[in-house]
């Protein structure tokens, strides 16, 4: 089960789309954020592209990001991201773009 690993939404379980996606594990997300925290302390804007469940962006919000924009082309994923944002109470700090990340 996918969950927020730290911050204000720590422990909140997130819904995952049933599309064959393999979301980043707690260990992988923790390692990514450990590296990012050493690179910058500016978390004013975060972009989560190919968002899937939105777990990476929600983790950023939980850790103090001011705003996160989520991009995914699958309507099922966009709906789940919105549900996860409501569950974690981060709806006001985010926007979900249901569209391809790059135009051909």
> Rg from C-alpha positions?
13 Å
End-to-end gap: 35 Å
The SSE string, one letter per element, is EEHEHEHE
Q: Percent range for helical residues? A: 25-40%
Regions with pLDDT < 50 over 5+ consecutive residues? none
Description:
The protein is globular and about 35 Å long. The chain has three helices and five strands, in the order E-E-H-E-H-E-H-E. It has helices spanning 26-39, 55-62, 75-88, and strands spanning 2-3, 13-14, 45-49, 67-72, 94-98. Helix 3 links the parallel strand 4 (67-72) and strand 5. The chain has a three-stranded parallel sheet with strand order 3-4-5, covered by helices on one side. Strands 1-2 form a two-stranded antiparallel ribbon. It has 104 residues and is an alpha/beta fold.
In short:
With 104 residues, the chain is an alpha/beta fold. It is 35% helix and 19% strand. The chain has three helices and five strands, in the order ββαβαβαβ.
Layout of helices and strands, plus pairs?
Blueprint: E1 2-3, E2 13-14, H1 26-39, E3 45-49, H2 55-62, E4 67-72, H3 75-88, E5 94-98
Parallel strand pairs: 3-4, 4-5
Antiparallel strand pairs: 1-2
